[in-house]
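Researcher: Here's a chain I'd like modeled. Treat it as a single chain, no partners, no ligands.
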Amino acid sequence: MKIGVLALQGAVAEHIRSIELAGAEGVAIKKTEELQDIQGLIIPGGESTTIGKLMRKYDFIDAIREFSAAGKPIFGTCAGLIVLAKTIEGQEEAHLGLMDITVARNAFGRQRESFETDLDVKGIDEPIRAVFIRAPLIRSVGDQVDVLSSYNEEIVAARQGHLLASSFHPELTDDYRLHQYFVDMVKAVQAS
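Model: Modeled as a single isolated chain. Structure tokens:
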């Protein structure tokens, strides 16, 4: 099973390492045609406006929407969460607009307000280590969205069917259980 990591910006190698620890093959995705070879896709962190511009420049917007329409799982982390969202506070246009969530960019403040903490995540037994770097927050979710984790009563991870999103960077720790959760989502789609 192959899981792609959108390689326009962000911690691509770290995501690939976590995917492989979770028992799948991780591949960097640089061209839209490479989406045909994978069963799941991770959109990593970085700067959401830049990622959005690069996705438009390289024709990834429609290609990823089609990937999603085929029921293939997508996991957005940090900026990737913003890219997945239907609504971005203070911004007229969404990027992919796939997930029924409203997000606030840089909700935790600047780089110096970055932090690590242990988080309970629904569907994962023990708390996971979460790294927040200029992280967004999920302000609200639609009826079909399942909240998986909160920090200080703010939503930081959610799932909507085949879509998974986290405000934090699970790839920047040695704890690959959120990637394992995503790999299991992909396996479930493959089995159905």
